[in-house]
Batch of 3 targets.
Target 1
Amino acid sequence: MEKQHYTLLLVEGEHQPPSVVRRYLEQCQKTEFSVDVANGFHESIARLMSDRFDLVLLDMSVDGLIATDFLKHANIVGFEMPVIVLNDDRVTKDVSELEEALLHLGASDFIPQSELTRGLLERSIRHVVERKYIETQIAQLLKRDPLTGLGNRLIFEEHAELAIARARRNSYQIAVIFMDLDRFKQVNDSLGHHVGDLLLTLISQRLDRSIRKSDVVARIGGDEFVLLLDNIERPNNASLIAGKILHAVTRPAIIGEHSIEVSASMGVAMYPQHGTNCTELMQKADMALYECKQQLDQQFLLFNERMQEKLKHMLTLERELNHAIETEAFELYYQPKIDLKSETVIGVEALIRWPMPDGSIRMPGDFIPEAVRTGAIIPIGEWALEVACKQIAQWRDLGARIPIAVNISPRHLKLPEFTGKLLEKVKRYDIDPGLLELELTEEALVETGASNIFILQEIRQAGVRIAIDDFGTGYSSMRYLKVLPIDCVKIDKTFISGGEGVELSDPTITQAIIFLAKGLSLDVVAEGVETEAQKQTLKDIGCDKVQGFVFSPPIPSRLLNQILFPEIGYKAQETY
């Protein structure tokens, strides 16, 4: 068997005669060593600064060589090689306490002189070096994207901070670019994830070939990439380079039998104009990318002051949202659903509101997009479901069965624990699951994918109802309606009250949707009914259930209670 060879620094006391350690190292049978000897603390640190070693043997057999000082200094300057401490336990009173302290400072092993043998020393050296090698390999794997082989966010941030430090010293600029592929989800959905993965690998190779050796590219998730362009003379140069990279990336991709048109969008941020650390630059490049995606005629955008103000607003809103979640500052308002034949309340839709200290109300359109962007929509949705289940139980205790529909995000369906948490709430409040309805928009339902269809089926089999909201605004078809596990179709208000007059804005499409849904044995609810004329027309064309301001705006539960119960003059009707 071929012997392992290691370079080793043996640190001894300044006036220490050659120790038994040197003889043991020469006698090792499975390992060869190139041994350099350093005498004392200062010489050992100097050697570490100038040469590379596989490990350090720190011999403490002579008083005055303080291992703690050595290890502390090694930590400060960033030495990462393993260190084995050999201690003369004949002069050390509390060996266990010293061992614990040295291991805490980063020593890889601690061997008392009284236990030291050639075999133990060789085994310890091989073990700590091999362990360090494995740790290094794992660390490298953790910094690499397993699909494309590019670096990931972790290694990008390390390179970026070093590049920023160089740019600061040498007074030059660098650029951070966020890039993602346009319509990548359509590739996955239509051609399969295998083709999508091959496309990402191809794009990664194109990116890697299109940058300089001094630049860095990393994949940070899905179809998102981040690039660092080092030593840029002026922002215009960054835009020119971004254009060249886009040109290289967006050539058609031939994958198997498929020819895929590739397009991408980029957001650019510059050091030091837009940020002085990696976090700021990535945040602003991401913001520029977001703005770029909103403008269909742009492929890349440089961060600007207008985005700065928007970013400040977003960050402020994010902090306020987190505080509102922690303090449960939101409130559910309820808009009644009405049966047109009996004109009784047959259910309600829960709509979130955010009361402000000054008495004003923040509407969902002001904060839900930011909640979706940051992920805050998850705890907000959980809170809404909790409050809705509690409200169903309270109305039940008052003698009424009032179904509540709650809007949820498709992000909830991606959580493996979502179904369990939902059904736990139903069980905890001891409510009929049929009185709880989950509403997802048409687009969200279609984009949920096969795995989430299974989740919806599981929820529905447990008795919870599923509704498709804003129907008619997306790209659903009869095929989707037949496949999706839903109970109810809600016709989008643009077909009801989107016109200039008091009549239905599009009665032909509305009637077609009603006919289609009823043919599939689905309930139909028309949203946004504002006039008596609209209500009557809906009734004439076969719509049984409606919701809108003609009956009631969304109102707090305390006001809704005045409508729901017989003693106030209204009757709550059992349904479903």
Target 2
Amino acid sequence: MSNKRMTVKEMAKKYPNEWLFIVEPETREKTTHLISGIVKVHSTSREDVDKASRKFCKDAAIRFTGDYTSHRHKMTFSKPRDLK
């Protein structure tokens, strides 16, 4: 997987109807509106993306690029875990 930062439009074009695990998400100030990020995992299965997210300890986002009206969440964020 590339470390290239992509916009949301670029992600949707490259990975249509897929779940994306996005690291280093850039969002609009004071919102969760995703602007860009680096796609680390993409899959038609949400489970694959969730599995990848469990191993990650920094800011990240999960997004579905298709018609999300039948899905519960369009995007979720995770914050770093306390690694004491």
Target 3
Amino acid sequence: MKRVIEVEDLCCKRCAERAEKKLLLLDGVSGAKANFKRNIIFVETELPDAALAACITDAGFVVKEIRERKGIFG
């Protein structure tokens, strides 16, 4: 399932890379890509939202929202 994690203070490329690497260490995450300009992280996983939120919080960021990613084709 594709998810979007909206975070606070994803202020630079290094912060984005840190968040990506932290998520990719989780079993069950097959992909992660952060966009620091938009303060969002795209994740492909079957893990529950609570596990993703705990991982991002542990990396030093505040999670604002986790939602399902909807593409242009549904």
